[in-house]
Amino acid sequence: MKILKKIQEASSLEELEGIRIKLFGKKGALAGEFAKLKDIPGPEKKAFAEGLNKKKAMLQNAVDEKYEFLKSQEIEAMLKKEAIDVSLYSSLGKKGALHPVMETMDKIIDYFVAMNFAVKDGPMVEDDFHNFEALNLPKSHPARDMQDTFYFNDGGLLRTHTSPVQIRTMLKTKPPIRIISPGSVFRRDYDLTHTPMFHQVEGLVVDESGTVSFANLKSILTDFLHYMFGDVEVRFRPSFFPFTEPSAEVDISCIFCAGDGCRVCSHTGWLEVLGCGIVDPNVFKAVGYDDVSGYAFGLGVERFAMLMHKVPDLRSLFEGDIRLLEQFR
Ligand code: PHE
């Protein structure tokens, strides 16, 4: 049968589809044959119809078989074409590494997560209320100055610290609270130890009145600094932040001269690494908290990274110079 040969010799799915339509389509050859039925006299009708049906089934079978064959051939060809030789050597096969700032951030986060702190983040574009007002930073505070803060025309601003996350968390949840919030912050600063964007990790613990003390704060931060810097001395020095009272700055004995005095520690033997304190009652008032006590702390991640890796110029961390970054692998 000529048509059977044609089916068997079809070399592509398109060609096969063309044949199928010519055979089985509404105006196809088989339809034409079946149309003849009505002109065939009664006695022969049955035999003719049976023959036709057999032929139809046989052709359908042939088309199906050929279809399966061509389809699997097509899949095979595609697999061959798209195959990737994973064993092939590439001269581009360089491994990436974490940026030293992110690596330091991860190490800090790991410590506090192990101490049962939850990690929270907040928006980088903030408003005056969350970044200043609720944190007891009075309208006249110099930090609000255009010198320090990036403002938008609509009064919004780039957060100057991660402390607004404290406010957002307290407004959303009831105590007890035990969080850290790592993230980028922004200030109009640019020199050896300042870049306009840098990273902080904020910490906040709040619980019933009388249950969170300066002693708690002191003990966890001392332990944390030993975890980060090893066997250093830690000292708490009275200081001031509008959102904490009392406040302290925390120093470690200089890791470069072991406290003897050198250029890095300005010959004091100490390096300042943290700010902290007992949450000021005005902050609790701003978020509608009553009868609670809490502590907070904040640190600059770049400062930690610089000290841990002995990086002399903070700006170099953000220049993306591969020669510098490769030293941190
Ligand atoms: N927000 C302060 C800063 O950016 C750091 C800080 C946080 C100090 C929490 C005390 C308590 O300098």
Topology of helices and strands:
Elements lengths: L1 H8 L3 H12 L4 H8 L5 H41 L17 H15 L3 E2 L5 E2 L1 H4 L25 E2 L5 H9 L4 E10 L10 E12 L5 H16 L4 E8 L2 E10 L16 E10 L1 H6 L5 E9 H9 L12 H4 L4
Parallel strand pairs: 1-4
Antiparallel strand pairs: 2-3, 4-5, 5-9, 6-7, 7-8, 8-9
Helix pairs in contact: 5-10
Bound molecules: phenylalanine (PHE).
Give the fraction of residues assigned to helices: 40-55%
Number of domains: 2
Low-confidence residue ranges: none
Radius of gyration: 38 Å
Mean pLDDT: 92
Number of helices: 11
Q: What is the C-level CATH assignment of the largest domain?
A: Alpha Beta
Assign the structural class, choosing from mainly alpha, mainly beta, alpha/beta, alpha+beta, or little secondary structure: alpha+beta
**Ligands in the structure?**
phenylalanine
3D architecture notes:
Helix content is 40%, strand content 20%. It is an alpha+beta fold and 329 residues long. The protein has a seven-stranded mixed β-sheet with strand order 1-4-5-9-8-7-6, with helices on both faces. Strands 2-3 form a two-stranded antiparallel ribbon. Helix 5 packs across helix 10 (301-309). The longest helix is centred in the first third of the chain and has 41 residues, at 42-82. It is elongated, with a radius of gyration of 38 Å. The chain starts with a helix and ends with a helix. The relative contact order is 0.11. Bound molecules: phenylalanine (PHE). Phenylalanine (PHE) binds next to strand 8 and strand 9.
